């Protein structure tokens, strides 16, 4: 039996789920095998209310999982299916129709090298991964090609997951001090756009430096970071 917080290995059976109403949601690192749930990557067994479970690991290569949000780089924008590098062992495909408002007569303006923020609609080890930039109602909800002028960098996967956690206050604290847009994706890529290149790089450095920082230390960390940023510009 695996308890919350235990270290698990690929193939370990996970059967110690907290009793709660509603459907159990399996996050990264967990997979159903018939009636059982098994770990498919090494790491720490994690739980978040109401009923979300996942394996937190420090792996370097991203393993795609269905419904995860990723940032990709378009490598081939020709034809009906764009090829997109999402940092995994294989590239993913993205149909030109999977953009808000796209039709056969109204193709999205996508070029090689563009960054796209998308969701994995299919992630199967036996088939090519597929991306979409719209929900079931055809709305983008923030997905699509990212605007020019931003900066993308790579962080460890566990840091990207930490930034996306609703309890993590780091980006909220930074956002109170300086105007910025930030997207942290499940494949370990973070995209930033701020008022200047100097601020963008400073924010990226702050995010990277907060990798092992506890939540209760982040307010003081951001205050010190902003003081150094503004003192350095005076």
Automatic annotation (TrEMBL):
Lineage: superkingdom: Eukaryota
Listed GO MF terms: RNA binding
GO cellular component, one term: cytoplasmic exosome (RNase complex)
Keyword RNA-binding: yes
Pfam families hit by this protein: KH_6 (PF15985), Rrp40_N (PF18311), RRP40_S1 (PF21262)
Keywords: Cytoplasm, Exosome, Nucleus, RNA-binding, rRNA processing
Residue ranges of domain K Homology in the record: 150-197
Subcellular location(s) per record: Cytoplasm; Nucleus, Nucleolus
Domain Exosome complex exonuclease Rrp40 N-terminal: 26-61
Record-level GO BP terms: CUT catabolic process; exonucleolytic trimming to generate mature 3'-end of 5.8S rRNA from tricistronic rRNA transcript (SSU-rRNA, 5.8S rRNA, LSU-rRNA); nuclear polyadenylation-dependent rRNA catabolic process; poly(A)-dependent snoRNA 3'-end processing; TRAMP-dependent tRNA surveillance pathway; U4 snRNA 3'-end processing
PANTHER family attached to this UniProt entry: EXOSOME COMPLEX COMPONENT RRP40, PNAS-3 RELATED
Family (UniProt): Belongs to the RRP40 family.
Protein name: Ribosomal RNA-processing protein 40
Source species: Dimorphilus gyrociliatus
């Amino acid at each position: 039996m695996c308890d919350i917080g235990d270290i698990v290995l690929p193939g370990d059976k996970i059967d110690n789920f907290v009793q709660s109403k509603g459907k159990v949601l399996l996050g990264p690192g967990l997979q159903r095998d018939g009636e059982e749930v098994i770990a498919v990557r090494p790491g720490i067994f994690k739980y978040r209310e109401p009923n979300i479970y996942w394996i937190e690991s420090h792996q370097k290569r991203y393993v795609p999982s269905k419904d995860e949000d990723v940032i990709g780089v378009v490598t081939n924008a020709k034809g009906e299916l764009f090829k997109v590098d999402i940092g995994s062992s294989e590239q993913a495909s993205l149909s030109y129709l999977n953009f808000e408002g796209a039709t056969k007569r109204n193709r999205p303006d996508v070029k090689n090298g563009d960054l796209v923020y998308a969701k994995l609609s299919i992630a199967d080890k036996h088939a090519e991964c597929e991306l979409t930039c719209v929900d079931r109602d055809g709305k983008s909800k923030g997905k699509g090609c990212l605007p020019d002028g931003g900066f993308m960098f790579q962080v460890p996967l566990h840091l990207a997951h930490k930034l996306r956690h609703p309890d993590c206050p780091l980006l909220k604290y930074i956002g109170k001090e300086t105007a910025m847009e930030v997207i942290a994706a499940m494949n370990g890529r973070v995209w930033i756009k701020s008022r200047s290149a100097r601020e963008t790089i400073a924010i990226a450095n702050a995010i990277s430096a907060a990798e092992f920082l506890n939540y209760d230390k982040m307010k003081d960390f951001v205050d010190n970071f902003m003081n150094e940023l503004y003192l350095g510009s005076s």
